[in-house]
């Protein structure tokens, strides 16, 4: 059973400590919501798990099924079954979506998919997320609207089928229709029960569509409170003020 | 541009058929300061023994005539007057010139391919090529440079009224080659000239494409792609001289550099003279520096002498591979080397798509792949 285990994780950016001892375990079949105010370090956690070079792990461990994630390169982590849906996917000029997706699928599955099957799989994936067919020929994220970028992230999630997915504010900047489409994608991904989701969000809105099993409140670079879905309702009513004061 | 119509710019003050008019460069001149003269094998100071050999073979489209002519042919040097020391050395030293003529209103059915094959880098060779596209004709010409050589030449493209010429010039030399070349395009009324320069091989390549206009409505599109490896010096010096109203020029040169002492130089000079109202020009140069130890010099110069232009702009950007690009691809499982290849391929893709000759496009794509696999 896939398990992502984060133990006492400390992360710095340019010598400034952002994460101050994060402990979190995500098992397959579970959905965890990580909620917190802006600047609390939520995205830092996401990028540190993915291995972005800007973030330095100063102490602590991250393991996936017992394997040391921190010693793996960015691409090795992805091939091991970790996925990060990015808040701000970068534009890569001249690289087409279809070429990118085929390269990614080939890398993660360990062999090139048959072109005919892949074309079909891609079309079905795009249809399910209401993505226009012309999209595949466009340059990666170039000129995409905010909603298109997020749909594209979820398309990758569904194609790559990771063990554990970290979704970094996938809900931000989406209108209600797009939020529903994206949430349905996440729910399809979770429906197998064999995958774990860490949903990072500022708002409770997406949790109406993607029901979490656990809610963690993040403030000052660590988890300050944990509970079930009811904790989200409490946050909705009371906001983060209580936690930001406490951590300041 | 002739002697009697010198541009006002101080950068391009001189042009002449006479070797004596150009002193041996010392390397301190603005036009020579980036070029390592010691690697020119004497092309610049008259010491190069003229014992080399570059075999010129033309495979013409059936509509096209090809002649080999002597120095006294009236078409030689008609559109272009040498503008620097090596250019005039080549002009005063070549023995036979090749003249390709596309007759009036002819639309060529296939590309005319000029193979220039260097046989040795021991002695120098001088060459001259004239391509005349008569009014309303349309043609595609490919210059394919390969092998070992120390070669200096001048190429004149004379594009007649309403005619269209597309040129691909491929510098795919062996590692020991030295090539100094001037490509001049003279555009008559409503003429279209599209050039695509690809410079990949050679120890030192210095190519100076220039454009002049003799009638309104001329349209020049100059694209270039270069890939400098360790030790290579690849220099492109462009000059577009807008002396006639209502003409257009668009320049887009992109390069990648990798390895110790890889050096790329791009100079983009555009002059819009007082009389050239309604000019529309844009020039762009980008350099992607893939490793430490490589260096790109990029100098756009836009000299505007009239207030009435339709558009005039330039941009130059040199930078490293963007870590965020490779991170994004790696985060999807794509190994670093492949991510790097995808990003660099993407960087060139838009430009390569502009090559209209399919087999050349495929060859350039394959060459870029091969460079990246090094």
From TrEMBL, chain A:
Keywords, comma-separated and alphabetical:
ATP-binding, Nucleotide-binding
Q: Name one GO molecular function term.
A: ATP hydrolysis activity
| Top-level taxonomic group | Bacteria
| UniProt keyword annotation of ATP-binding present | yes
Q: Which residues form a coiled coil?
A: none
ABC transporter domain location: 4-245
Pfam families on file:
ABC_tran
Q: Which family does it belong to?
A: Belongs to the ABC transporter superfamily. Ycf16 family.
Q: What is this protein called?
A: Fe-S cluster assembly ATPase SufC
Organism encoding this protein: Sphaerisporangium album
Q: Which gene encodes it?
A: sufC
Automatic annotation (TrEMBL), chain B:
Instruction: Report domain SUF system FeS cluster assembly SufBD core positions.
Output: 119-346
- Its signal peptide is none
Sorted alphabetically, which Pfam families does this protein's record hold? SUFBD_core
The entry assigns this protein to a family as follows: Belongs to the iron-sulfur cluster assembly SufBD family.
Kindly list the biological process annotations in GO that this record carries: iron-sulfur cluster assembly
Organism lineage string: Bacteria, Bacillati, Actinomycetota, Actinomycetes, Streptosporangiales
Tell me which PANTHER family the record gives: PROTEIN ABCI7, CHLOROPLASTIC
Spell out the protein name for this chain: Fe-S cluster assembly protein SufD
Stored SUPFAM superfamilies: Stabilizer of iron transporter SufD
């Amino acid at each position: 059973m896939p398990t992502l285990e984060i133990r006492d994780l400390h992360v710095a950016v340019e010598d400034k400590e952002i994460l101050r001892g994060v402990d979190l375990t995500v098992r397959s079949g579970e959905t965890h919501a990580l909620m917190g105010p802006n600047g609390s370090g939520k995205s830092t956690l996401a990028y540190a798990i993915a291995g972005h070079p800007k973030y330095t792990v100063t102490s602590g461990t991250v393991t996936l099924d017992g394997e040391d994630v921190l010693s793996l390169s960015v691409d090795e982590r992805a091939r091991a079954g970790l996925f990060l849906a990015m808040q701000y996917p970068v534009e890569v000029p001249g690289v087409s979506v279809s070429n990118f997706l085929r390269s990614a699928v080939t890398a993660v599955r360990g062999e090139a998919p048959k072109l005919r099957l892949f074309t079909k799989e891609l079309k079905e994936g795009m249809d399910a997320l209401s993505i226009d067919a012309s999209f595949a020929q466009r340059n990666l994220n170039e000129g995409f609207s905010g909603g298109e970028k997020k749909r594209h992230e979820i398309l990758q999630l569904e194609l790559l089928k990771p063990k554990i997915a970290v979704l970094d504010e996938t809900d931000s900047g989406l209108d209600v229709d797009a939020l529903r489409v994206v949430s349905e994608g996440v729910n399809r991904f979770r429906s197998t029960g064999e995958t774990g989701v860490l949903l990072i969000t500022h708002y409770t809105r997406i949790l109406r569509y993607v029901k979490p099993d656990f809610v963690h409140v993040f403030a000052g670079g660590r988890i300050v409170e944990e509970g079930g879905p009811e904790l989200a309702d409490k946050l909705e009513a009371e906001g983060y003020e209580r936690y930001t004061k406490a951590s300041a | 541009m002739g002697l009697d119509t010198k541009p006002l710019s101080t950068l391009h003050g001189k042009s002449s058929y006479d070797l004596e008019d150009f002193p041996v460069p010392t390397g301190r001149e603005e036009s020579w300061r980036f070029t390592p003269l010691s690697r020119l094998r004497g092309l610049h100071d008259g010491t190069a023994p003229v014992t080399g050999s570059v075999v010129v073979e033309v495979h013409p489209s059936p509509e096209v005539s090809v002649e080999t002519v002597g120095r006294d042919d009236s078409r030689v040097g008609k559109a272009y007057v040498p503008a620097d020391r090596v250019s005039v050395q080549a002009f005063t030293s070549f023995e036979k010139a090749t003249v390709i003529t596309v007759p009036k209103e002819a639309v060529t059915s296939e590309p005319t391919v000029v193979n220039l094959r260097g046989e040795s880098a021991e002695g120098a060779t001088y060459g001259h090529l004239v391509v005349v596209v008569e009014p309303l004709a349309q043609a595609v010409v490919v210059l394919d440079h390969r092998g070992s050589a120390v070669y200096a030449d001048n190429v004149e493209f004379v594009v007649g009224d309403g005619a269209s010429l597309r040129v691909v010039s491929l510098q795919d030399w062996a590692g020991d080659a030295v090539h100094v070349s001037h490509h001049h395009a003279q555009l008559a009324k409503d003429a279209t000239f599209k050039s695509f320069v690809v410079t990949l091989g050679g120890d030192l390549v210095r190519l100076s494409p220039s454009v002049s206009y003799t009638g309104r409505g001329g349209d020049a599109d100059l694209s270039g792609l270069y890939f400098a490896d360790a030790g290579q010096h690849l220099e492109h010096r462009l000059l577009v001289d807008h002396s006639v109203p209502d003409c257009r020029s668009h320049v887009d040169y992109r390069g990648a550099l990798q390895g110790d002492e890889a050096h790329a130089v791009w100079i983009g000079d555009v002059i819009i003279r007082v009389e050239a109202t309604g000019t529309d020009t844009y020039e762009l140069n980008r350099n992607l520096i893939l490793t430490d130890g490589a260096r790109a010099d990029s100098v756009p110069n836009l000299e505007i002498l009239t207030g009435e232009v339709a558009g005039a702009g330039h941009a130059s950007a040199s930078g490293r591979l963007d870590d965020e690009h490779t991170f994004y691809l790696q985060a999807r499982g794509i190994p670093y080397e492949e991510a790097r290849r995808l990003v660099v391929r993407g960087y060139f893709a838009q430009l390569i798509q502009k090559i209209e000759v399919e087999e050349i496009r495929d060859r350039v794509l394959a060459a870029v792949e091969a460079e990246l696999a090094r």
